[in-house]
Design goal:
13 strands, three-stranded antiparallel sheet, alpha+beta, Alpha-Beta Plaits, 15 helices, binds iron/sulfur cluster, binds flavin-adenine dinucleotide, 4 domains
Length: 404
């Protein structure tokens, strides 16, 4: 039966939970708010299925075709609603227009994040845009299987580890009806931190919190802007454009609150088991030689023959320019290759989470802002002399040890 020696060895994909024929695995949540499998031992028949589907324990770098494009959805409203260029919606729309089903991460009524599925284009906005919180997978892998068994076309989008988890659950399928989409993944923040932040947002206003966007394009694509809307029409907006500080934004971008597996991510590679990998194309001008993509662009890496066939069919829905893969990864996709370093005070942060207020947490952990120029010079020097990766790995190992 599945046993997790260290928390970094479980990405929380829930493949084991769904695969267990005895339904004796459930998720148990730790003080950081992340779920780990808990087995009711008296019901377990030692079949070993849970171990065989685990994407972390069984990860093997896949072979992959790797063609690279910069794309932007032709519908400006879709680009506005999406994190980057609305690349995901292009594939999703194709599937929905062929009587298919699309799975992705959506908000619940109480703004928690979970995977769900849709069967019509009018529901697609639910799945659009990044939610910087670990999404609960629930029974979606089993639902994917059900739809595939019925002969339906299915698109599943998620983090690389969720997609690998599904791929293992489905026993490494080679099914032309299944389109797997993942993205360059920075890491997934704790749902408990998100809940604390939501309660704080709610406390700021008598009116109910209605919606939240992690990637609002109010000030343009180049700025990171988070926005919350209340039922009375008021909103709360914070943006890099105004150098605003915010508990959720700082907790995410300073790599404080990702799941332990994200600091030692097994899925870091330009090669994926998915058909398509998406990521932000900040350097769209440099990669395409035009300014056509400045409202938001998605870089896509196609990994399979199926995906290259698909791109020909969906080009009518998108502006699309072939790009140099190495350059695209170097400019915008470094997080495809490297895990983030854990925040030095991560352990202390989570110890304080239950007792300090959001304001007190901000004051204690995020009072300093911006990059330290001396630190940046040292980093550049270390990169030049080839010592950066070596030192980074040493620091990462030490911080991982302190975390557990
Ligand atoms: C937690 C997280 C970290 C990311 N880190 C990076 C990064 O470091 N660098 C980078 O270039 N890009 C990163 N991305 C991807 C990027 O933000 C865009 O999602 C990507 O560029 C595709 O954008 P799009 O406009 O094509 O489609 P969008 O409509 O924005 O795509 C949204 C897709 O992402 C899925 N999704 C949203 N939130 C989650 C979630 N919490 N868990 C699983 N799936 C989710 C949705 O289901 C949908 O399929 C990250 C995304 C997430 C969710
Ligand atoms: S060994 Fe089989 S029965 Fe036991 S927990 Fe794993 S999947 Fe379930
Ligand atoms: S990584 Fe996924 S399959 Fe493996 S133990 Fe964790 S939840 Fe289960
Ligand atoms: S960083 Fe790696 S382990 Fe973490 S959510 Fe992303 S793919 Fe999964």
């Amino acid at each position: 039966m599945i046993q997790i020696a260290q928390k970094k060895d479980c990405c929380g994909c829930e493949a084991c939970v769904q695969a267990c024929p005895k339904k004796c695995i459930s998720l148990s949540y730790d003080h950081e708010g992340f779920g780990y499998p808990y087995v009711e031992k008296d019901k377990c028949v030692e079949c070993g299925l849970c171990e065989r589907v685990c994407p972390v324990a069984n990860y093997v770098e896949p072979d992959s075709l790797q063609k690279c494009y910069v794309i932007q959805n032709k519908d400006p409203n879709v680009v506005r609603e999406s994190a980057s260029g609305g690349g995901f919606s292009i594939f999703a729309d194709y599937v929905l227009q062929h009587n298919g089903v699309v799975f992705g991460a959506a908000y619940t009524d109480s703004l928690e994040v979970e995977h769900t599925y849709i069967e019509s284009s009018s529901e697609l906005s639910k799945l659009r845009c990044s939610k910087y919180v670990q999404s609960r997978i629930g029974n979606t892998y089993a639902k994917v299987k059900e739809f595939l068994d019925e002969g339906r076309l299915v698109c599943f989008a998620g983090t690389p580890c969720q997609v690998y988890g599904l791929w293992m659950y489905l026993k490494k399928p080679n099914n032309p009806n299944l389109i797997l989409v993942d993205f360059a993944c920075h890491g997934v923040p704790s749902p408990k931190v998100w809940k604390k932040y939501l309660a704080w947002l709610q406390s700021k206003n008598d009116s109910n919190l209605k919606s939240y966007r992690f990637r609002d394009k109010k000030f343009g694509y180049q700025y990171t802007t988070f926005s919350a809307k209340y039922e009375d029409g008021t909103d709360y907006v914070i943006s890099d454009c105004n150098n605003d500080r915010d508990f959720m934004k700082d907790s995410f971008f300073r790599d404080v609150v990702s799941r332990p597996s994200c600091y030692n991510c097994k899925f870091k590679s330009v090669k994926h088991v998915s058909d398509v990998t998406l990521f932000d194309c900040w350097h769209n001008e440099e990669l395409t030689g035009t300014t056509d993509y400045s409202d938001g662009a998605t870089t896509i890496i196609l990994h399979t023959q199926r995906a290259t066939e698909l791109i020909d069919e969906i080009k009518v829905r998108a502006k699309c320019t072939e790009a140099d893969l190495d350059k695209a990864v170097e400019l915008d996709g470094v997080c495809l290759i490297y895990s983030k370093l854990p925040f030095a005070q991560r352990k202390e942060y989570f110890e304080d989470l239950d007792t300090l207020t959001v304001e007190e947490m901000n004051k204690k952990y995020f009072v300093k802002s911006g990059n330290n120029p001396i630190k940046e010079c040292i980093k550049a020097f270390l990169r030049k002399v080839g010592l950066f990766d070596w030192l980074r790995n040493k620091i990462a190992k030490r911080r991982m040890k302190n975390m557990s």
